[in-house]
Amino acid sequence: MRKNPNILVIGDLMIDHYLWGECDRISPEAPVQVVDIKEETKRLGGAGNVIANLKTLGAEVGVMSVLGDDLIADEISFLLSKDKIKIEKLIREVGRKSAQKSRLMAVHQQIIRFDKESKEEIKSKSEEELVLKLEEIIKNYDAVLLSDYAKGVLTPSFCSSIIKIANQNSKFVLVDPKGKNFLKYKGATLLTPNLKEASLATGIEINDQNSLKKAILKLKDEVLLKYSIITLSDKGMALYDDKLEIVPAIAKEVYDVTGAGDTVLATLGYALSIGLNIKDAVILANKAAAVVVGKVGSATASLEEIEKYIHLNDELECKIKTSNELSQILQNGDKKVVFTNGCFDILHIGHIKYLKKSRNLGDILVVGLNSDDSVKRLKGKSRPINSQINRALMLSALSFVDFVVIFDEDTPYELIKKINPDILVKGADYLGKDVVGSDVVKDVRLIEFEDGFSTTNLIDKIKESK
Hints:
Radius of gyration: 26 Å
Number of strands: 18
CATH class of the largest domain: Alpha Beta
């Protein structure tokens, strides 16, 4: 298995320009924030972010594109050379504006973005030169990645030529698509559209498993893809090889989704080039995307970061069980099992003290967690604030929580019957009330809550501070 594959990137290169500052006042001239700029940074964006991700993973990378004849093009060329990217062909067209996206950032939040760019298609002469160069160098590469930002480089005829040349030489060709016309990528190994892009391209509103299957199959059949993929944001990725599979994402706090699609494309290209099968490639891409959404700005994920992320989440995930798994684990055991349940939407010190006291009553603490749908029915459409997987992982991080099990009903009655705990714990506010499951469990304990702490109060306090 090769660890340093050669991968060629073709697409729209640009500069990601960041102005970093602080904001603590409103302008006297107009009702707008005044940002005090502390730092200015520039990095490769667009196809350049795909390149950066490939380099971080350990690939050797070549690039072909078309730029304007301007200072931004000079900066792009400089950054490519600085990062030791093999420039196979960079054509400069007079009158074309090289792309730059400028983002104003304050307190890790993007305030505004302003762009300078050309969007018209590249000239036919430029396309011909690029095709000739590709025919000359294709044998040197394991895969070709097309990063389409709809800035005019990847014309339908150019895409067709690239895919034909790649297929003739048995090279992978992966595409991050744009627009509605996915037929211009006909014959590619795979595309990486998100749900919205896939819906627009297929004309199918994707709102359930059935419509997802129809859309992903339509893409596979009409675009003649080897593998069909649709990215599902925090739900992971849908893959159709010989059947539909949903490869779930492991949730992580999201600071910025900028460039996550580039990371997916780069990681899939890298994984296939080193010999991984498509399922393992998708799993790796999911992990890489989870790493980068936790960073600010277009970011990359190294293999080391991905391994650390996988290790951390494996440790946490191993505590999250289905009711069937939990029933098997707990049966015929001689340890005292304690059960409690709740939404645990925004974890606070009141929750932590309550759970620790619960654990002290026995040997194993099982926490039943209301699913997202269950929370919405109980608390309203604006809840939960955090998704069920995020809430489950937060609970799993507590050393005194042994297992977490998500249930979809309004009450955990069926779950309690299934796992049959020794002790059932609820808050002291249940004094004098019927406790769900008390007819199943012999020992019911009520624990006092910490005064002044509740998720609702926290949400209200946040609203008041705005």
